[in-house]
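Why do we care about 3D structure at all? Because function follows from shape, and shape follows, mostly, from sequence. That is the central idea of this module. The next example makes it concrete: a single protein chain, its amino acid sequence, and then its structure expressed as tokens.
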Amino acid sequence: MKHRIFTLIIMVFIVLKGYAQLSIEDCYEKAELNYPLIKQYGLIEKSKDYNLSNTGKGYLPQIQFSAKATYQSEVIKIPINIPNIKGLSKEQYGATIDINQTIWDGGNIKSQKDNITSQAVVDKKNLEVSIYSIRQRINQLFFGILLYDEMLKQNTLYQEDLKRNFDQISAYMQSGIANRADMDAVEVEQIKARQKRTELEYGKKAYLEMLSVFVNEQIDENIQLRKPTNNDLYLTNNQRPELEMYDAQLHNLDVQRNEVNATLMPKLSAFVTGGYGRPGLNMLKNKFSAYYIGGVSLSWNLSSLYTRKNKLNNIEISKSMIESQRETFLFDNRLDMSQSKIDIEKIRQILKSDDNIIRLRGSVKNSAEAKVANGTLSVLELMKEVNAEQQAIQDKIVHEIELIQAIYNLKYITNN
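And the structure:
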């Protein structure tokens, strides 16, 4: 009993596997998650956190230790003798600890943090652009596999048609209407059809292996790719990640401008210095003593005015360059969009006549078969008509896949 249940589970698994379907959206998601560049998202975030942490430590007390020992060729001397007061020694020693606490830095640390955060956003948007580009490669593989599937289905029908012709010609031979050469002509087409099937199977296998690498899972040859519908798609709103990347770059430049302005602001801080040395603060005591100094300091570095204008001009030049890149991208994108829409309309118009061509080719083939049966047409001529009908069917299959691929190419161009 247990053996039967196990066998049944295995059979159900095989059946479900055979009917498993994979959509192009699934491929997008899996390929993007598997793409090596995806690891850089975490690295960018970690780098940002480290830099923000380091910059934020500027608000902590800054501690500095220093020590020195000196020998002077001359020291201050008092020209009169005073009891209990000796002159300074030429050998002097000192050790100090300086603690400086920022009270107000004019927004300098905040602007540095803003710059780190905005630069991380720029890096991520650049990464999104790189990862988005793999969708175009997924499109090529996915629709290539769909085309191979449809061609293989048609090849099966074509071989069945050739088998039917072969059996019919065999019957004609028995009645004297056809000869061995007629049989050979049909058999040649059968061999060609089998060769074509081998070519299609290996082409599909190569595409499946490449798609498997992209999605990081083995795709079985029997898997069913979910064929997208060829619905109308003429969305004009552009949502390409490049546009967000340009916005992030422009915002980063605005943050840099704020950082340049922050360097002009005065800085207020509190400090305390503790020391031990000879002499101490009292220069009249020539012995080791401890001391401290505390207070508030104000500093204002006006030398940054020298370069401020040039720095701001460089930022404006960088913004103009980014705007130019954006305009160029949008211009090229509009051209691609226009061409893609024209391709879609062209294929739609061609498809309207495909069915009519197939119908007419089928009628001509049927007429040729009747003529062969009557002995008024050679089998070679019949094979030409059979191949012509087959070519018309294949053309329609190609056009149907091309239409869906063109629609998804437009989706890629606009990210809709």
